[in-house]
Design a protein that fits this description.
alpha/beta, 261 residues, 7 strands, binds adenosine-5'-diphosphate, binds magnesium ion, Rossmann fold, 7-stranded mixed sheet, 12 helices
């Protein structure tokens, strides 16, 4: 039987495209026929909002999943996209670092819950912009980490700290953790700087960097205010095309065969 694939989407910098990637990769995978669950692990709840899950639909939340009050099947709600479910977040998650500090096994809370994920499913975890207890929980639960990098100056700064956290998790609670890859986001081809950042990233990080680069595209930034992935809001936009292409590279790295719809 195929195992589950659990991928943390992490970067301690805010505004680099983690949530946009989680929502649109999730949508692209679901549209390609993969059972996909997006876990919104950011107290800001942007992935929940971006998939149209309103505050009153968040009856069960990722916080209750962490504390063990509910299981994955109960916490994951259906979205408007077939095959895509979401574990919503609420602002109370912001106190998790403090609230869970004394809990035994506090870095394995999410891992225990995601062990129940259906075989063959893909779980994406949208991490908060920090390397605290929540992101560590995501890394302990995951088979790999996908790192969005915004194609701008200082993009590579902070990456060594992130890779250091991955190394610590690998040496400790989760030896099987791998780097899935680096995704360059918000690239502007009219801008020399974006091209320079891309060249630097490919030289430094080699094949870890995905061939597809996500362009800066206004339709991508408009989509969340319509509570939709850009793949639904404007399926033919440059952003949608790039995220679909990235999704095929992503599934190839997971060695998943495309499902016949
Ligand atoms: P993070 O989750 O890392 O904080 P987001 O995914 O929320 O980052 O992205 C930050 C902002 O940039 C959001 O307003 C988002 O809509 C916008 N954005 C992300 N990707 C793109 C893109 N390819 N083109 C245009 N705007 C984008
Ligand atoms: Mg985010």
């Amino acid at each position: 039987m195929p195992e589950q694939h659990i991928v943390a989407i992490a970067n301690q910098k805010g505004g680099v495209g983690k949530t946009t990637t989680a929502v649109n990769l999730g949508a692209a995978l679901a549209q390609a026929g993969h059972q996909t669950i997006l876990v919104d692990l950011d107290p800001q709840g942007n992935a929940s909002t971006g998939l149209g899950i309103t505050a009153d639909q968040r009856t069960h939340t990722v916080y209750e999943l962490l504390t063990g009050e509910v299981d994955l099947q109960t916490a994951a709600v259906e979205t408007d996209i077939h095959n895509l479910r979401l574990v919503p977040s609420t602002p109370d998650l912001a106190s998790a670092d403090v609230q869970l500090a004394q809990t035994p096994d506090r870095t394995r809370l999410l891992a225990k819950q995601l062990a129940d994920a259906p075989d063959g499913s893909i779980i994406l975890i949208d991490c908060p912009p920090a390397l605290g207890l929540l992101t560590v929980n995501a890394m302990v639960a995951s088979s790999s980490v996908l790192v969005p990098l915004q194609a701008e100056f200082y993009a590579l700064e902070g990456l060594s700290q992130l890779l250091g956290t991955v190394r610590q998790v690998r040496q400790g609670p989760n030896p099987r953790l791998r780097i899935n890859g680096i995704l360059l986001t918000m690239s502007d081809y009219r801008n020399n700087l974006s091209q320079q950042v891309e060249a630097d990233a490919r030289e430094t990080l080699g094949d870890l960097v995905y061939p597809t680069v996500i362009p800066r595209n206004v339709r991508v930034s408009e989509a969340p205010s319509h509570a939709q992935p850009v793949l639904v809001y404007d399926p033919l936009s440059k952003g949608s095309t790039a995220y679909r292409q990235f999704a095929t590279e992503f599934t190839a790295r997971l060695k998943l065969v495309p499902e016949i719809a």
